[in-house]
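User: I would dearly like some help making sense of a protein record. I have put the entry right below:
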Amino acid sequence: MTMRAALPDEKAALPDFRLCANGWRYQACNWLVNENDPHPYCFACRFNRIILDMVHEQNLLRFRCFEQAKKRLLFTLLELQIPLHNGFDSPHDGLLFDLVEDQRTAPERYIESFVHTGFKGGVITINALEADDVFREQIKREMNEPYRTLLGHLRHEIGHYYWSILSLSSAMQIQFQKLFGDVHQDYKKALEHYYNNGNRQWHNEYISRYASAHPLEDWAETWGHYLHIYDALDTAFSYGSLAHSPATMDIGTRISTWMEWSIMLNELNRSMGIDDPYPFVLNAQVIDKLTYVNHTIEQLRVQEIRAPVFSHRR
């Protein structure tokens, strides 16, 4: 997106804006609010339900990291033109974020010994420690993960959210089971089996080891990588390094372009002595799953235009 100054004859037609409250209070947001809007927060910050206690300086840094990642996530979703409404305005199908602590960061203020990052009931919960680079790198190494970022968490969890509002045709349901497996298998038992035994053959069918834990985790991991790919290519296009926007590419072209670009990105990092930014392989199964995610996004886009999924009550 390119910004420019308004010409003299255009200024009268442009509305006045003010900085989002999270911008002038905490320097955590650079989005704007229409001057005529009584709400203190911008579109993106209205998705926040619980945030950190900003009295503590470390929490201020964590909040800024969280907002930066969340803004990138929401910008991509807006680019994809799929349903995106906060849970305050759409309490039955909307989305909210909780950024919370536990006893590891604030033993005197919280009784919970461990708060899990995850999704439930329209709310994405992020443990504040995931916005702490040192902690996140420690967990990454302990769990032998090749990739762990705050943005990656958000892109994964938003996949669970969209699954919760997606209406699949019978044909799409059959295709899902063929690609991802039986979504009705016991989730708790599947995760217990995964953490106790792992899956040594995951490279043949999945984008990541964790994707092999359960069909819904495979879906969320694949969805997250779809967003990784789209946003990275969109950034390259915005800087003139790519001839075409990913929005104008079919899914096959988008994937093949990314496969070339990811190799280049990895080699660039290696030339600087830095870890690969994309340590994953898009095998045939994963490509089929990414194509499926693309179909669901097209369906969500149609739902948003023709029959908004947030307009009904359960």
Observations:
- The chain is about 45% helix and 5% strand.
